[in-house]
């Protein structure tokens, strides 16, 4: 829905034309876009201009370069992540994972889990009302979809609350961490999600296999039990090109 | 909360150190960070390494370069935008603007308003169940905070619904568009917000005065009345470094 103006530099106009062709489905996911030589011939521009046009589509997350093969429409349909329905008690109370509703028939899988006991980072200790350096159970997971890493999740829980439960194990059992918190009498009753966007740190870019120039979405989710105790803080880092976050709510 | 490893390249370690110093408040908003010469002397590195470290902080939105003057901590506290409380009927029913809760004592101001009647873009027509090219009232606004543009908002409303009301005027009166929709018997009863992040298009980067390498957050908000009719689609583009989006909800 952006407006194009006549004052745009040439490379931006070429990029806008390619973008419109992708939006209209003339180039689908995985399709190769016209190369530099094609664009030079078609638009009568210098190689640098053609390269800038293709570069712009890459920083917008629409296309990605494959070494030696050209520039391709990113072969990725975004995941619709419903913040509110997704976490409804009906869902995780039934032994389904928090993520199952997001992806239709595609399988979002955890390809690495690390569980550790560690001192609380200052920000988490603050939210939980704990002393800095109080012990936390920390669960670090990476989620992949169609073989592509899309989400890094770091979940922090009070160590004393979850001691000797499956939460301290890689496999937490049906329904996951929230079902186990419910078993303990601390079912989440309220959530807060704080959402930001920024460029990835180098470690995040590598672990999410992000093309250069693609930002991440960062979600800090805080889970409160019925008494208002913070029972989990989950810091998530998402490939921005892989996700649409949806929040539905009453006025 | 990111982990730093010993395997990091030198420029990343220097950037991590500067980032930690900003987080700890040793450099506050608007403060000048050490320059390339300072970092070269302090860490015994080449100019390129010092430059890469400072460049990384810029792409993360933590710092910005000012021509000839150095690299400075971005002078901007993020706006906390509450998706759910913010839109509560209690608020806009009382003649307060949707945005007033976000910013404490700082003034978020509209510095440009354009109202036009235009044919519906395909995506908006689809959501509204209208024919493509059906007429819409389109309100384009830019919001600035502390003199810095932070938000571009494009609001689409069915032209027949809002004809001859203040919604077609730049100034919609107390309570804004939602209060006027309520006057018409079409008060918003339910909202959907869809959130994405991406790099800005060139036009957006210019209108938001974004430093290079800073992504935008894109929110598409759909407002439904009590009968389920879509009464507004609002597409917002936010400076990602200026906003934290907050959503609070029951489990």
TrEMBL record, chains A, B:
InterPro entries linked to this entry: Bact_HTH_transcr_reg, Chorismate_lyase_/UTRA_dom_sf, Tscrpt_reg_HTH_GntR, UTRA, WH-like_DNA-bd_sf, WH_DNA-bd_sf
Record keywords: DNA-binding, Transcription, Transcription regulation
Keyword Transcription in annotation: yes
Signal peptide: none
Residue span(s) of domain HTH gntR-type: 8-76
Gene Ontology terms, MF aspect: DNA binding; DNA-binding transcription factor activity
Record Gene3D superfamilies: Chorismate lyase-like, Winged helix-like DNA-binding domain superfamily/Winged helix DNA-binding domain
BP-aspect Gene Ontology terms: negative regulation of DNA-templated transcription
Protein name: GntR family transcriptional regulator
